[in-house]
What we know:
216 residues
Amino acid sequence: MMEKIETLIAKDLLKIRAVFFRPEEPFIWASGIKSPVYCDNRLTLTAPEVRNDVENALAETIRREYPDVEVLMGTSTAGIAHAAITGHILGLPMGYVRSGNKDHGRKNQIEGRLEPGQKVVVVEDLISTGGSVIEVVNVLREAGADVLGVVSIFTYGMQKGLDRLAAANVRNISLTNFDVIAQVAAEENYIKPQDVARLIAFRNNPSDESWIGGNK
Length: 216
């Protein structure tokens, strides 16, 4: 069943260009790294059929992987809507974690009610190096939450991210991943079959630009 979800979500993300491959004209990330892929999973929110697939898959994954969950917490800002919709499907309370404390009112960083000891699943849209979602988990743990793990729409599967999550003792389950999307993109003619190896080379070492211009 999981394989079917991985492929379905990969097809959905490619169809609406939420994940968009351009190996011949790389995008430039804020860090300066050249990337053959552009990801904007917020686009799923404005595509109702894809949104339906994503939220139902998130709900199904949470039911299967984290059956004891009591509260969903979205990452700010991309995970908030997904946590809200999935929480509605599951009949669970939800909140979200700000990137920093508010500078007014009660100066909350965690929005929504969270009792110490409650079992929490974090809802994230995208995981690359893992830094931002680990910060969210740490904030929740400091507040006394029992963080069961993370569910995300898409992960690159970068080694740095995998190592960081493991070191922080954070479990992540993604609906789909870079390898599946690259394969589906080749099968459905978004990219050339020979581009798959270039994409995987990028994922394995983003700072090595030798994948650029290959297989032309």
